Predict the 3D structure of the following.
Amino acid sequence: MTEKFILSPFQKFVKIESLGGLLLVTATLLALIWSNSPYSDSYTALWDYKVGITTETFELNKPLILWINDGLMAIFFFLIGLEIKREFLIGELNSPKKIGFPLVGALGGMIIPVLCFFLLNNNPETLKGWGIPMATDIAFSLAILTALGKRIPLSLKVFLTAFAIVDDLGAVLVIAIFYSSSIKFVLLGIALALLAMLYFLSYKGFYLKYFTIGIGIIVWILFLKSGIHPTLAGILMAFSIPIRQKITTPEFIETLGEITNNIEKASDLNKPILSKEQIQQIDHLEDWIYKYQSPLQQIEHNLHYWVAYLIIPIFAFANAGVIINSSGTLDYNLVITIIASLVLGKSIGVTSFVLLASKIKFISIPSDISIWHIVGVSFLAGIGFTMSIFIAGLAFIEETTFIDSAKIGILLGSLISAIIGFIILKYKK
């Protein structure tokens, strides 16, 4: 019973991500169909439509595609930040023993694909796309694992989730260091000062939701105007959300008993409605429930639905539309390089690093995970999609040929990786 209680939140997370993966597939197919239909001009025009505000002293006027990539994706990165903080404090990354297995896999899954990209790429103009094959799309990969049913041990899903989170952290660092434009340090300094204030207040146990949201919007604008990619504001804001409860479990249970007794005493069996005293006790209970919940876990729980079912599908719908025709110009070397980096780089990197680390006793692999499990998951790690497309947009800003080539490489590489990983995990001995 205890094991089921402990594992059920993770299983629920897997279910959300899996359905999100199916929505991703649907959004991607719709984008490809629309962008290659007779109405392709309307697809482009929609995302190029500018929305914003302009005054004498301030301007924030951007195409719809950038509101999605800079704005909505900041919420996606905020969720990633919450996951990273939780995993490092109380989750699968909170001890050297736990972090070893996914960390080694993630390092192999980042280093080898990047090396593969450098070795295969023969165009100096596309070298800046080296970060594209680094990350793993957790929604797609978990959707495939879930489709395989009970043949997949839960420990393998935990490994893939932790592995993908470490991967995302690596990709975030790469974006921050290598894919930000010229920096305006005064604006950045103000943003960091506001973040430092939030961190201090969080440390002291002070947290107000709407105050934090207001500061978060200001920090996002400051990052945008300073030249640092604004999605990084989402990551840094997540670290300011407290994970500690305001009241302990014994306090909550004791108060819950008192409230229950008071509601029972104030009940009137002859009336079908609540008494004034009962309503007051229910209000009191709501206050205590709010104080008992961890702000970080509560926000993460609520955001998962919005991100998996809305934000990421919208991102895919806006970014996956690539015009595929014989007259179009593509950099085929870039396409092949990305495919090879995702399919071969990821599989070789994850498998070799994990098996070597296990051989030298640096990590221990759970007994229910076989070598074929690791090989299969290493191919699923080649499903780059969301983060890969995002990095491609940063690497090749306004270079349509390279962006389209990168997207086709990502789509094909992710598809091939998914098929190979699925076959290995389904028919492994």
